[in-house]
Amino acid sequence: MNLFDLAGRRVLVTGAGANGGVGHALALGFFRAGAQLAVCDIDEEGLARTAQEIGKTALAARCDISSEADVDALFARIKDTLGGLDVLVNVPFVFPRRCPPHELPLADWDRMFAVNVTGYFLCIRAALPLMLAQGNGCIINIGSNAGETALGRGAFAYSATKSAVHQMTRELAVEYGGRGVRVNALAPAQVLTPGLAAHMDNPHFRDKVLPRILMGLPMGRLLAPEDMVGPALFLASEAAACVNGVILPVDGGNLAMNAGGGAPGAQ
Ligand SMILES: NC(=O)c1ccc[n+]([C@@H]2O[C@H](COP(=O)([O-])OP(=O)(O)OC[C@H]3O[C@@H](n4cnc5c(N)ncnc54)[C@H](O)[C@@H]3O)[C@@H](O)[C@H]2O)c1
């Protein structure tokens, strides 16, 4: 089981401030696996709650990942505090509203790319010198099934940002695999986070959209944030020493299923 040992690993989880979100679950998961944990978020109050819940973070810092100055300042603190970084987990996203592409404001498009793509790039660019100096490191990007197949329903720009995350993952894996840095992504299907739970009060979502989502999930349930923990710990561990450039679906089988698919007994 030493293959899965993460004790003492220096791990940064970005976007860890939303209680019930994926970043929060991953931060708790890495901490429980014995990591030295740094966390950041743009939401200072949420981050403080996460840090308090964990109890012993090496660093908890406000950081807007779309700001070059914020990211560079964060990584300077990480270098001072932890002396390096073994694992970077990129989690944050913004999705201001669903909107048909022909009506999408440029400001929404720009904001989604600024956080969901440029923010990941800035964190990766800041982490790589630390990892290359050590001769090893692991980057885990949170992508989406929407980065592999089309979602419709006004998710045009969000999906495009997630595809960009997946392709950045592959490019970086090829670029740095030979220098000890592995880069992979998790591609979740719909995760029951507070953001998704908020839609349950909307009768159209609850009665029309949710049943269609569930039909696309062969395991018959939404994902939970905690479902991301095991795959992330695996990717960060020695057990995944030769896993590089992979977009790992954590989707209950969604991407495996075609339009005629369904569980036994499904109509
Ligand atoms: N929830 C889903 O159904 C789902 C499905 C597939 C993929 N994903 C992906 O999982 C990841 C997490 O999703 P979630 O639903 O748990 O999100 P969430 O809203 O619960 O958490 C995202 C966190 O990112 C933070 N954040 C936003 N902008 C930031 C910025 N500029 N700088 C720093 N932090 C910032 C937020 O404050 C929040 O704490 C995202 O990458 C998302 O695309 C989610």
From TrEMBL:
It comes from the Bacteria. Coiled coil: none annotated. GO terms for molecular function: oxidoreductase activity. Keywords: Oxidoreductase. Pfam families: adh_short_C2 (PF13561). InterPro entries: NAD(P)-bd_dom_sf, Sc_DH/Rdtase_CS, SDR_fam. SUPFAM superfamilies: NAD(P)-binding Rossmann-fold domains. PROSITE patterns: ADH_SHORT. Belongs to the short-chain dehydrogenases/reductases (SDR) family. This is NAD-dependent dehydratase. It comes from Rhodoblastus sphagnicola.
